[in-house]
Amino acid sequence: MGAETEQLIEVDGVEKVFSVRRKVGRLRRVREEVRAVDGISFRVPRGEMVGYIGPNGAGKSTTIKMLTGILVPSGGRLRVAGLDPARERTRLARRIGVVFGQRTTLWWDLPLKDSYELVRRMYRVPDAVYRTNLERCVELLDLAPLLAVPVRQLSLGQRMRGDIAAALLPDPEVLYLDEPTIGLDVISKAKVRGFLHEVNAERGTTVLLTTHDLTDIEQLCRRVMVIDHGRLVYDGGLDGLRTAGGGERTLVVELERELPPIEGVPGARTVKVAGPRQWLAFPASQSAAPLVAAVAARYPLVDLSVREPDIESLIAELYAGGGKRVDAAVDGGNIGRAL
């Protein structure tokens, strides 16, 4: 395979600096530089689905705007499908799909189907490809009742589904999604997630997903990147994120009868007791096997389970960690992590 096939998105030391004026006193204003993206680097192989998350103002949208050619980097190097987004924006537009949160790309006064016809003409999508993609999107995203409805009359969730379909009609190699499940009910969210999973698995579409709904990340992405204050603070798998976040796992133990809190198990502490059931917390980086063996050797064990730390709390800990940086290397699908 060629380099383009192996790495569809290449980001090397990319920076974006904005110059802003800040008011000082009643009349004076001073010019300041705001570093929205601060030297980030990563690679995304063709066909991978990656979660790109961070707090508001972390630099997520700025990164995506540079990857699409909307913004020009202040420094560093970018390549998407072998193209420089800023210099070759028109050529790149035919190879990417973008859904920017609540900013619809559909025509406000036109029925949904007419918007799709315009997308077909703008991107010069072959008729056969257009019909196949439209039928699939309509079926999987439940858009049939909405095709004749003007976009202005659609709910937020309906527009999001419509925007996702529009972005996929030209068969893009890369799909950038910003909050694709916002405003959707539970059933619609499941449909969108299932649809995105199929698109990625069957067509090999590369997806970069930003979201505040971390269930999207857990169900769709094997790899997640966390950005904070313009810096990449984590790049790796969800399991590695649990370790990097410094959270705790929980061993839930079911005993034959009610007993006092379990004690004397190295590396664990009992955090809750409810009848014969007890909860023991231990570091996420630690194996559960020695704990299980220690409990089984000393207590009348009936059943047990291990609960992973909550992903929301782990990411909050990463944000709170400030300058602590976690670098990860992705090699052939194996994700390594080095502190």
Automatic annotation (TrEMBL):
Q: Name one GO cellular component term.
A: plasma membrane
Domain ABC transporter: residue ranges: 9-254
Q: Which SMART domains match?
A: AAA (SM00382)
Q: How does it sit in the membrane?
A: Peripheral membrane protein
Recorded superkingdom: Bacteria
**Pfam families for the chain:** ABC_tran
Q: What is its main location?
A: membrane
What keywords sit in the KW lines?
A: Antibiotic resistance, ATP-binding, Nucleotide-binding, Transport
One example GO MF annotation:
ATP hydrolysis activity
Protein location = Cell membrane
Asked if the record carries the keyword Acetylation, the reply is: no
Question: Please, one GO biological process term?
Answer: response to antibiotic
Q: Which InterPro entries does this UniProt record tie to the protein?
A: AAA+_ATPase, ABC_transporter-like_ATP-bd, ABC_transporter_ATP-binding, P-loop_NTPase
The protein in question is named ABC transporter
| Biological source species | Streptomyces auratus AGR0001
Taxonomic lineage is: Bacteria, Bacillati, Actinomycetota, Actinomycetes, Kitasatosporales
